[in-house]
């Protein structure tokens, strides 16, 4: 198996701007950059707005983004909405963010001569020059202004000859090159002044972008992220007040959950890891050669490397997650360490997913991968529907490797959800903080307490927020009263026996092929097949 460590850095040109509208000049600069500097790709960073320009001049962002993809029309030019997704306005901030999540990329900033003429007006322009190499492309009427500009004079000693441009991406900044022979007269400003339409709408069944930076492709199915306000109001109106656990995971909640996985009482994470790693050889042998992997819920590279490195001739890895930002950052990082093509699909695993065809190398079969015991967070009917959809997604002859938390001593289970440090309690209570900060809800957080217990009848841990006294949660002026001891149900975590799992699986196209557990039989890794 080849090493999972890549030594060669990907050379990426970055062309930022409003693309209002995008035009052939942008494309010609990008093609010249690919050829003259030996770049692997050029990323167009479509900004929501330039702080130096009047916001009234901009066409709708989605129109600019779609039209840019039409104009680019090249497999090595990737159109990105990174700045919008990250809420970034200034190039210096964008470069810092891109380098943080792409440590193995060698970036080059691309700009026209008119950009260099005004470069000294950019926020933290010296930081930009000290962060990445810069390539400047001439534009008619701008070369003189550019080369006598404040920035060009200050950086003059760091300018290299165009004949040395192939080494630019690997030269420590500050360093820049000026290409005097690129003189496409087009400009977005000139196009706007001629009133050429820039609101072209392209009908697309989805947003398939191939390639996408380090990824073989990125497919955005625009999953429904839910309406927090509507779901809170609906949940508080039920006889058993409830709220979906998906609202746990704002920034604060995600950080708290990361802490939970390392707690002494919280056995699932470390026990699952032990089961997978200690049985890796048997698991990968049972999967067989030339499998393409589809992971439900994008995790860290550590969670997938053992599987890819243990398989014989793996074909590809596709990560799926509902959170677009989380997915792109994780999948891009994973692409830097796996020796196979990596792709990503933004989707909800409760919705149908169709894998793009003819983009990835051919595989003998697909392997679904669903670690983390998330199956247990679903109702049994929802789990059955999920397994049926997964079979349709992965196709005939597929396999599915899942992690399941097994039934065990009640004291162990309850301790895992009632840790001594109170991290799980803070994770649960964060839902109330979100209601106050995001919905303007009127409530007293101190009127509630974390309440988690094992329901023997349903074989599940239940998490609730329990009222310590009579209290009210008011949303949009509507009060929802709680009597002492009444709860807001926040999560279920079903625990399985292998027999119970087999009974569930048998109601779907899947069959349980093999299973592996730790010595205490606390956690199971189960391999399903639909052939």
From TrEMBL:
<dbReference type="InterPro" id="IPR014729">
    <property type="entry name" value="Rossmann-like_a/b/a_fold"/>
</dbReference>
<feature type="domain" description="Cytidyltransferase-like">
    <location>
        <begin position="14"/>
        <end position="194"/>
    </location>
</feature>
<keyword id="KW-0489">Methyltransferase</keyword>
<comment type="similarity">
    <text>Belongs to the NadD family.</text>
</comment>
<comment type="function">
    <text>Catalyzes the reversible adenylation of nicotinate mononucleotide (NaMN) to nicotinic acid adenine dinucleotide (NaAD).</text>
</comment>
<keyword id="KW-0662">Pyridine nucleotide biosynthesis</keyword>
<keyword id="KW-0547">Nucleotide-binding</keyword>
<keyword id="KW-0808">Transferase</keyword>
<dbReference type="InterPro" id="IPR029063">
    <property type="entry name" value="SAM-dependent_MTases_sf"/>
</dbReference>
<feature type="domain" description="Histidine-specific methyltransferase SAM-dependent">
    <location>
        <begin position="228"/>
        <end position="529"/>
    </location>
</feature>
<keyword id="KW-0548">Nucleotidyltransferase</keyword>
<dbReference type="InterPro" id="IPR019257">
    <property type="entry name" value="MeTrfase_dom"/>
</dbReference>
<protein>
    <recommendedName>
        <fullName>Probable nicotinate-nucleotide adenylyltransferase</fullName>
        <ecNumber>2.7.7.18</ecNumber>
    </recommendedName>
</protein>
<dbReference type="InterPro" id="IPR005248">
    <property type="entry name" value="NadD/NMNAT"/>
</dbReference>
<keyword id="KW-0520">NAD</keyword>
<dbReference type="GO" id="GO:0032259">
    <property type="term" value="P:methylation"/>
</dbReference>
<dbReference type="InterPro" id="IPR051128">
    <property type="entry name" value="EgtD_Methyltrsf_superfamily"/>
</dbReference>
<keyword id="KW-0067">ATP-binding</keyword>
<comment type="pathway">
    <text>Cofactor biosynthesis; NAD(+) biosynthesis; deamido-NAD(+) from nicotinate D-ribonucleotide: step 1/1.</text>
</comment>
<dbReference type="InterPro" id="IPR004821">
    <property type="entry name" value="Cyt_trans-like"/>
</dbReference>
<dbReference type="Pfam" id="PF10017">
    <property type="entry name" value="Methyltransf_33"/>
</dbReference>
<dbReference type="GO" id="GO:0052706">
    <property type="term" value="F:L-histidine N(alpha)-methyltransferase activity"/>
</dbReference>
<dbReference type="Pfam" id="PF01467">
    <property type="entry name" value="CTP_transf_like"/>
</dbReference>
<dbReference type="InterPro" id="IPR035094">
    <property type="entry name" value="EgtD"/>
</dbReference>
């Amino acid at each position: 198996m080849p090493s999972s460590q890549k030594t060669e850095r990907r050379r990426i040109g970055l062309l930022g701007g409003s693309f209002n509208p995008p035009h052939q000049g942008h494309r010609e600069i990008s093609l010249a950059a690919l050829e003259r500097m030996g770049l692997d790709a050029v990323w167009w960073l479509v900004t929501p707005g330039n702080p130096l320009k009047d916001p009234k001049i901009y066409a709708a962002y989605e129109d600019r983004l779609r039209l840019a993809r039409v104009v680019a029309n090249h497999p090595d030019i990737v159109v990105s909405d990174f700045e919008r997704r990250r809420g970034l306005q200034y190039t210096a901030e964008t470069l810092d963010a891109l380098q943080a999540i792409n440590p193995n990329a060698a970036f080059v900033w691309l700009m026209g001569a008119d950009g260099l003429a005004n470069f000294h007006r950019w926020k933290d322009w010296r930081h930009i020059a000290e962060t990445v190499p810069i390539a400047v492309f001439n534009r008619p009427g701008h070369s003189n202004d550019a080369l006598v500009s404040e920035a060009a004079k200050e950086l003059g000693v760091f300018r290299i000859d165009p004949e040395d441009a192939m080494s630019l991406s690997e030269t420590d900044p500050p360093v820049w090159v000026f290409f005097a022979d690129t003189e496409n007269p087009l400009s977005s400003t000139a196009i706007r002044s001629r009133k050429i339409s820039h609101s072209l709408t392209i009908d697309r069944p989805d947003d398939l972008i191939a390639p996408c930076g380090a990824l073989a492709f990125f497919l955005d199915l625009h999953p429904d992220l839910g309406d927090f306000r509507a779901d809170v109001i609906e949940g508080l109106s039920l006889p058993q007040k409830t709220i979906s656990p998906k609202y746990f995971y704002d920034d604060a909640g995600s950080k708290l959950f990361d802490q939970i996985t390392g707690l002494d009482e919280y056995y699932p994470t470390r026990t699952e890891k032990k089961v997978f790693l200690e049985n890796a050889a048997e698991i990968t042998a049972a999967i067989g050669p030339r499998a393409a992997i589809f992971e439900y819920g994008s995790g860290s590279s550590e969670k997938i490397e053992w599987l890819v490195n243990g398989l014989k001739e793996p074909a590809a890895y596709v990560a799926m997650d509902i959170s677009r930002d989380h997915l792109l950052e994780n999948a891009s990082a994973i692409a830097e360490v796996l020796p196979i093509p990596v792709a990503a699909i933004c989707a909800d695993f409760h919705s149908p997913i169709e894998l793009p065809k003819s983009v990835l190398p051919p595989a003998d079969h697909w392997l679904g991968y669903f670690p983390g015991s998330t199956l247990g967070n679903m109702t049994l009917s929802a789990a059955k529907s999920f397994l049926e959809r997964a079979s349709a997604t992965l196709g005939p002859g597929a396999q599915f490797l899942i992690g399941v938390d097994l039934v065990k001593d009640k004291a162990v289970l309850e301790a895992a959800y009632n840790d001594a440090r109170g991290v799980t309690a803070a994770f649960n209570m964060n839902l109330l903080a979100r209601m106050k900060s995001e919905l303007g809800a009127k409530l007293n957080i101190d009127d509630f307490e974390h309440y988690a217990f094992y329901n023997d009848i349903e074989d599940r841990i239940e998490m609730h927020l329990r009222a310590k006294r009579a209290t009210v949660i008011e949303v949009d002026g509507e009060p929802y009263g709680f009597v002492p001891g009444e709860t807001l149900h926040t999560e279920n975590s079903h625990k399985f026996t292998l027999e119970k799992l087999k009974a569930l699986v048998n109601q779907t196209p899947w069959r349980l092929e093999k299973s592996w557990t730790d010595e205490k039989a606390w956690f199971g890794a189960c391999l399903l097949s639909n052939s």
